[in-house]
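Quick start: what a row looks like.
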Amino acid sequence: MLCGLAVFRGAFDLDAAKAIAGDAAVAPTQVTEALTNLVAKSLVSSEIVDGAPHYRLLETTRAYALEKLAIAAGNETNARRHAIHHREPRPFEAASHSIGIPTSTEASLLFDA
């Protein structure tokens, strides 16, 4: 699971971890326990942000995990999961869009034009 989390360059929440790292080896329901074990081993740091836990890999741990992932040829699969997870609209963006506030994608199109 550690290698799967290496696609995150910064902080991530439990839902993101489940979407990216949950696979045949670690079911999404087991991600919480696995993440807790990684935090206990100091391989992943944890902090509470807005009342919810957020996690982050130290850069040296991330580099090691990316290297192992490349060797195992799983980087493309996890990168695809990461892109799909971040492509899905967030509740805030959906609510903002319904009241006329452009989503981040729409806003970037406006500013890039």
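That is the whole record. The CA atoms of residues 25 and 89 lie 27 Å apart. The longest helix spans residues 59-71.
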